[in-house]
Specification:
The complex is a heterodimer.
Chain A: E1 5-7, E2 10-14, E3 19-24, E4 31-37, E5 44-50, E6 55-58, E7 61-66, E8 71-76, E9 85-92, E10 102-104, E11 108-113
Parallel strand pairs in A: 2-11
Antiparallel strand pairs in A: 1-3, 3-8, 4-5, 4-9, 6-7, 7-8, 9-10, 9-11
Chain B: E1 5-7, E2 10-13, E3 19-24, E4 31-38, E5 42-50, E6 53-56, E7 65-68, E8 75-79, E9 88-95, E10 110-111, E11 115-119
Parallel strand pairs in B: 2-11
Antiparallel strand pairs in B: 1-3, 3-8, 4-5, 4-9, 5-6, 7-8, 9-10, 9-11
The chains are: A mainly beta, B mainly beta.
């Protein structure tokens, strides 16, 4: 069964606008990761946020994590046409020495129009 | 850095045939994961290895699916015999082991471009 559920399923914005995608999950996690996928290509890791972190930045990306609500958001600021892709959240429930695996949501398809 | 290499990129074969997909992980990554990506279910984990040992293959849909990683480097995913419902993109990923430091240390997975399998 799906762990992460992204919202919205699809998002269309103009260049320069901000894009916000949300992810909800069901069980306790060790970390949550966001990935990007261009059509026909493999997933590319964007950012990892650990369960003891609340916010993380990487360039134009800002990720928040609320473990009490079991939710995360990915904000892309000043979007560009090249940001057009599908974005996935993935949760990792493994702790310490255990070797957990990632459970993916179905993704948000972002379209940035020039 | 060389990324993950999956072969073939596309495979078209008939029902009843044996399909063998190959994954070459990033050098030094001892964890290797096989996923299946379908339109309906999205990305689902099939099985994963730590070095040459299978840690979890509960995601394999049937006994027709098997995965091996004989020397802890490359891995193969075999479907025997293939059925039409097996058509999907099969994706391989790998990662380094978790940091041995604090509890919350982790490593991201790196993904290949996948093999698009079509069963006629």
């Amino acid at each position: 069964s799906q762990q992460g559920e992204e919202d919205p399923q699809a998002l269309s914005i103009q260049e320069g606008e901000n894009a916000t995608m949300n992810c909800s999950y069901k069980t306790s996690i060790n970390n949550l990761q966001w990935y990007r996928q261009n059509s026909g290509r493999g997933l590319v890791h964007l950012i990892l946020i650990r369960s003891n972190e609340r916010e993380k930045h990487s360039g134009r990306l800002r990720v928040t994590l609320d473990t009490s609500k079991k939710s995360s958001s990915l904000l892309i600021t000043a979007s560009r046409a090249a940001d057009t892709a599908s974005y996935f959240c993935a949760t990792d429930a493994g702790y310490g020495g255990s070797q957990g695996n990632l459970i993916f949501g179905k993704g948000t398809k972002l379209s940035v129009k020039p | 850095d060389a990324g993950i290499i999956q072969s073939p990129k596309h495979e078209v074969t008939e029902m009843g045939q044996t399909v063998t997909l190959r994954c070459e992980p990033i050098f030094g990554h001892n964890f290797l994961f096989w996923y299946r990506d379908t339109f309906v279910q999205g990305l689902e984990l099939l099985s994963y290895f730590r070095s040459r040992s299978i840690i979890d293959n509960a995601g394999m849909p049937t006994e027709r699916f098997s995965a091996e990683r004989p020397d802890g480097s490359f891995s193969t995913l075999k479907i025997q015999p293939a059925e039409q419902g097996d058509s999907a993109v099969y994706v391989c990923a790998s990662r380094l082991p978790r940091d041995r430091g604090p509890k919350f240390s982790n490593q991201p997975q790196h993904f290949g471009d996948g093999t698009r399998l079509s069963i006629l």
